[in-house]
Design brief:
With 238 residues, the chain is of the alpha+beta class. 36% of the residues lie in helices and 34% in strands. The strands form two sheets. The chain has a five-stranded antiparallel sheet, with no helix packed on it. Strands 4, 5, 6, 7 and 8 form a five-stranded antiparallel sheet that branches. A hairpin with a 5-residue loop joins strand 2 and strand 3 (104-114). The longest helix is centred in the first third of the chain and has 65 residues, at 2-66.
């Protein structure tokens, strides 16, 4: 009997020791899982904060470059017109994009349009004014794409393309780096953003839309298409 009790006691001690070890192991694993969960949450928070900082840095980079661009300008020279009696059949022009100092930015291009009334189809982005108070003054500026030229006798879809579609205009590019995701998002998803107020707010955009000012062309005149940093598109005659 004594031997049986001793055996039973040993079995009980072994069981209790095993149970204790299992409990300690479970408790330890639970703590480890809690710590891993906490670290995962901290990592996700850090990654989210990093993404926000990267977006802000991209905005600042664009802002710094736009500070150097007071105006986007193109010169249109009327080279000649073909008439049929009193009716102007077509007009030949030379289109030259200039930088903010008036120097040639893109080599001149010559085109002929039907008639003499020219439309300049552009895409314009105007940034929020309050960005001035948050160390990004260029965000109060306007920037644009010269999309295409067409006349009153043409379907706009058949117009003459100027800036390549979904691209960032040369004057706004940085020679030292690729366009940031922030800039690419604006230009490549222009119309989607223009119909999404929430995304406009996230991107700091006040207005985003197309503009198509027009001008009747006269031989011997020179016309300047301009987008001032703080305004809209205009055509000036010389």
């Amino acid at each position: 009997m004594k031997s049986f009790l001793q055996t039973l006691l040993c079995i009980l001690l072994i069981f209790l020791a095993g149970w204790g070890l299992s409990y300690l192991s479970f408790s330890h694993n639970e703590k480890v899982h809690q710590q891993l969960g906490k670290l995962q949450t901290e990592l996700e928070t850090t990654q989210a904060e990093k993404a926000v900082l990267e977006k802000e840095n991209q905005k600042l980079d664009l802002a710094n470059r736009l500070l150097k661009v007071d105006v986007r300008r193109a010169r249109i020279e009327v080279l000649g017109q073909e008439k049929d009696g009193e009716t102007i059949r077509n007009t030949t022009i030379r289109f030259t994009e200039l930088d903010s100092t008036g120097a040639i930015l893109v080599p001149p291009r010559e085109w002929t349009i039907a008639g003499d009334l020219l439309y300049i189809d552009s895409l314009v982005v105007k940034f929020e004014d309050e960005q001035v108070e948050t160390a990004t003054p260029a965000q109060s500026q306007s920037i644009c794409v010269f999309r295409r030229l067409f006349s009153e006798h043409q379907n706009p879809a058949d117009g003459i393309p100027i800036d390549p579609e979904n691209s960032i205009p040369v004057i706004y590019r940085s020679s030292s780096q690729e366009p940031s995701p922030y800039e690419q998002e604006i230009w490549r998803q222009f119309w989607e953003i223009s119909n999404d107020p929430q995304r406009q707010k996230q991107l700091g955009i006040r207005a985003i839309h197309g503009e198509a000012p027009n001008q009747k062309l006269v031989p011997g005149r020179i016309y300047y298409v301009e987008l001032r940093a703080s305004g809209g598109l205009s055509i000036r005659t010389e």
